[in-house]
Amino acid sequence: MPDTFFTAAPHWRWLIVLYFFIGGMAGGSFALAALLDLFGKPQDRPLVRTGYYVACLGAVVSGMLLTADLGRPERFWHMLIQSERGLPMFKYWSPMSVGAWGLMLFGGFAVLATLGALHETGRMRWTLLQSLHGGVLGSLIAVLGGLCGFFLAGYTGALLSVTNRPLWADTTWLGLLFLSSGTSTAAALLMLLGLRRGVRTSAMVHWLSRMDRGTLLLELLALIVLTVSLGPALRVWMNGWGVLLLIGVVFAGILLPLCLEWRPRLLGRLSLPAGAVLVLLGGFLLRVVVVLSSEGV
Amino acid sequence: MAEAMGFYTDTTVCIGCKACEVACKEWNQLPAENGGIRELSGNSYDNTRRLDGIHWRHVKFVEQFSADRRDGRWLMMSDVCKHCAQAGCLEVCPTGAIIRTEFDTVVIQSNVCNGCRDCIAACPFGVIEINPASGTAQKCTLCYDRLQHGLEPACAKACPTASIQFGPLRELRERAQARVQQLQERGEARAYLYGADPTFLGGLNAFYLLVDTPETYGLPSHPRLPTRNLAFSALWSTLGAVVLGLLGLFSLRTRRDAVGPDETSSGTSGEGARHA
């Protein structure tokens, strides 16, 4: 029996599953929006702004979920400040410590980018906000926020691996898996929001669709490598969780959306939105299976 | 720093009386489970069943019986936090609540812990749990308060067979080694020490004399630090982020090439874009 099976479960359940899903999507949204912001075209601006809004909302919800999950929520700030000395609390070797700072920084960049986007649309008119979109400061926010976004999408997997729990600690590929899944769910969500705005065949939806395909393939590859790397710990998935992973994540969440993107005529006008919804469902189920299957041991 | 202190537990003389459990609960004022209404385990004479936030000592009953119950043996082991020289819980704790004391023991400061539970997942022995009364992670402190006043831990004080022995680690290791030798000379060839040397986690400050495999006692054979996975996890994630970034750039570039100037001229949104 692997040594990880002698440990205790930390009771990370639905709040953490939701955080992993929403945080990953928020991080991916900022990263995609930043790419479009820096290298896109004028007609991409609505999507850029949507990406920043999603990131900002996701960062706020993520912080609330994490705080609510603590045994002592009023002490959430102990992650950032040493409660007895007032000095910064930071351990570069602890993913949870780095993650707390990463989420805070990401939230800061997401708020700044959102303020810039609101000014761009004329909803907020303070001249001070003008520098937050376009120009050197706007580019800096996009670059740093984008890096934080990729970090937020992936660190949660590394956090699970840096434990001693079955499945999580038996592989080093969870970070890559969550990163690719976070980006694919972000692309899917932005695609859905873009379609809702009536931008059906524009180049930006086409780009998102291509990104989604690439990230889904990377996710599939990461999942295969991860499964092989598990060795004897694979027994955690030799039950209903494995079935859910195969049907809900691999088939419905990855293979089916890929089919719909390669053969869009299969469902006609519904192909794109149906594919995006399936990607979102698969991304959520992936977190459910990874987190709760180990919790059950 | 004072001399490194610890526990040496000789499982061959444990009689399963659970005096250590009671003494620990009494001294540390740990609450009863389920309001004192005990649920029986139903499959063992042991009803404590595990170490957790309100059970910092647990006498494990290893009950091995044949199907017809004519043949069998009992193994007993008073389990506790191992106070590892390289402690996984201390390593990952994001609040700095877990500290190493002047006695080389590992203590969770309940007034600092915020109940994130990262230490629970990091502990290779499954020792830590949340104490529902405080909402914080808790485990054996090796009676840090008693040690500060020159007293031995309550469990060791209460143990009637000297199965739990407390003292300077150097002395305990010598004593344990002599006991292993004695047992082997008397025909118990399986006797060995678990965690006395720095083979894993730099050595355990609470180590054991066992007469069967570690797994039989519910212990991992090669416990490791959680950060063993950090470098590769970070590496694969970083490489993935680079790949995704390049994919985004490449697909934007080819989109631009594919769509060409028509797209730009048809851009009627009038957006104040960065590149406009």
Residue runs with pLDDT of under 50 for 5 or more positions of chain A: none
Shape descriptor of chain A:
flat
Beta fraction of chain A: under 5%
Protein structure class of chain A: mainly alpha
Order of helices and strands of chain B: EHEEHEEHEEHHEHEEHH
Q: Which stretches of chain B of 5+ consecutive residues score pLDDT under 50?
A: 260-276
User: β content of chain B, as a range?
Assistant: 15-25%
User: How would the global form of chain B be characterised?
Assistant: globular
The total of beta strands of chain A comes to 0
Helix content of chain A: 55-70%
Give the biggest beta sheet of chain B.
4 strands, mixed
| CATH topology (level 3) name of the largest domain in chain B | Alpha-Beta Plaits
Number of domains of chain B: 2
Main-sheet strand order of chain B equals 8-1-10-9
What is the mean predicted local confidence, pLDDT of chain B?
A: 90
Q: Count structural domains of chain A.
A: 1
**Terminal-residue CA separation of chain A:** 12 Å
How would you classify the quaternary structure? heterodimer
Describe it.
The complex is a heterodimer of chains A (297) and B (276). Chain A is built from eight helices and no strands. Chain A is mostly helical and 297 residues long. Chain A has one domain: Formate dehydrogenase/DMSO reductase fold. Chain A starts with 13 loop residues before the first helix and ends with a helix. The mean pLDDT of chain A is 92. With 276 residues, chain B is of the alpha+beta class. Chain B has two domains: 5-224, Alpha-Beta Plaits; 229-261. In chain B, the strands form four sheets. Chain B has a four-stranded mixed sheet with strand order 8-1-10-9. The radius of gyration of chain B is 27 Å and the shape is globular. Mean pLDDT of chain B is 90; it is low at 260-276. At the A-B interface, helix 1, helix 2, helix 3, helix 4 and helix 5 of A face helix 2, helix 3 and helix 7 of B.
